[in-house]
Specification:
Number of domains: 2
CATH topology of the largest domain: YefM-like fold
Number of helices: 5
Shape: flat
Number of strands: 3
Strand content: 15-25%
Largest sheet: 3 strands, mixed
Radius of gyration: 29 Å
Strand order of the largest sheet: 1-2-3
CATH architecture of the largest domain: 3-Layer(aba) Sandwich
Order of helices and strands: EHHEEHHH
Mean pLDDT: 87
Length: 120
């Protein structure tokens, strides 16, 4: 549920720190008005980033709901099994993927570079 509160910029100025704390709650937004007309919205930085990300996804995938429905249908019918794999696409597009399976990755024990301790 969206919780939106509308107040004047003058009132917001008086309570800015309280408003900043309050908008940290999910879906809490303040609309600030000037001469009775909405001019500014205040929301948490996290909420703002979420909106920006959502708009970017909508831009990249304008038919996302349709695409998801098609994918669901393909899974239901098994048609997805005929789709190319990532390896197929890499091969078709000429990407060479290095085989790193023979390389060993790990942490080496520390080496003593100073040599043995000398007694006095």
């Amino acid at each position: 549920m969206d919780i939106k509160k509308t107040i004047s910029i003058t009132e917001a100025r008086k309570n800015l720190f309280d408003i900043a704390k309050e908008v940290q709650a999910p879906n809490k937004v303040y609309i600030l008005t000037e001469k009775g007309k909405p001019t500014v919205a205040i929301m948490s930085a996290e909420e703002y980033e979420s909106w920006i990300e959502t708009m970017e996804v909508d831009r990249i995938f304008p038919d996302l709901a349709k695409d998801v429905a098609e994918a669901d249908e393909a899974v239901r019918t098994g048609a997805y099994k005929k789709w190319p794999t990532l390896a197929d696409l890499e091969k078709d597009w000429g990407f060479a993927v290095a085989d790193k399976s023979k390389k060993k990755y790990g942490v080496r024990p520390p080496t003593n570079k100073k040599g043995p301790k000398k007694s006095r």
